[in-house]
Amino acid sequence: MSLAPYASHPARSRGRRHPEPPAPTRDDFQRDRDRIVHSTAFRRLVYKTQVFLNHEGDLFRTRLTHSLEVAQLGRSIARALRLNEDLVEAVALAHDLGHTPFGHAGQDALDACMAQHGGFEHNLQSLRVVDALEHRYPQYDGLNLSFEAREGILKHCSRANAERLEAAEPGGVGRRFCDRTQPGLEAQLCNLADEIAYNAHDIDDGVRSGLIELDRLDEVALFSRYLRETRTEHPQLQGRRVLYEAIRRMLSAQVYDVIDATRAALEAAGPADADDVRRAAPLVLFSGTMRAQSTELKQFLFRNLYRHPRVMQTTGRAKEVVRELFDAYIDDPAQMPQSFALREDRQRAVADYIAGMTDRFAIREHERLTGRRWIE
């Protein structure tokens, strides 16, 4: 399949920070994907949480399974729109590499610990992982990914951090946050595929955990339609198959909506190439109706899952673990590996070390340093 003219073409990539000769059998974006899959940070995602902590159940989503689901959805949509599937996959697989243990609770706690030292943003941390914290190659730190992959990984960035990135790398991945332009279509697509995946698997995990009753989802227009369809067409269906079929239909509806809405936006904007895309308004999007329904679903999940007392109790404990780990390493850097302990910027070194931990390693380290078990 030929790529659309406004897709990201590897032959027209803006390149890598450290120039390298081309690979004999792979283009630049395929090479990016392969480097991400073989990275240490990618392997750790299997033991990093989404909503439920890693030790709470074997069937709940982790950062790894979430990233794979984003990649699958992204590639399906990219194929229909003639965008670069390999770049979409690379960005999807790398977008959560900088996430802390314990999901957003860990991120919030680490951001509070770093409040006087530049803060902590998990998207920026994902970029730090691929730019500096992976140590796999003799010539440079990081994975030396293409500009386009790095641009997609940096999904959000504060103005202050964008200005710091721009000062260090003029015209680089921080520039668009300063001049308010857009990333390429593949990066825009990964942002939306991330949202679609979240909406679906958090319903699944929420019902599976018993924190959300299936019938409560009748309150949510986006899901209730497909739940009713499933029950009408398959009245004999019982148990989880009802849930799975309704989620499958909801996913398909969102994917087709993005394809149709994006095609219409591209036709209206008429971008000639990837640079035109960056100067335009966002072009990968939901229809107005689907955007409203997706927002309603996210609000429902926020109230009924992310703020459920059981989840809040666990996340409160997780924040405590991160805060106490941070204080312990600041007081005694020798408790960290030398590659972190000897760095001059102690606070950032500690943040990098904690952010790289899996849930279970953070729990073990906290017990080692404090003598207190997770469940007391």
Automatic annotation (TrEMBL):
Domain of life: Bacteria
Pfam families in UniProt: HD, HD_assoc
CDD domains: HDc
SMART domains: HDc
Chain spans, region Disordered: 1-33
Domain HD, chain residue ranges per copy: 63-199
Family statement: Belongs to the dGTPase family. Type 2 subfamily.
Name of the protein in question: Deoxyguanosinetriphosphate triphosphohydrolase-like protein
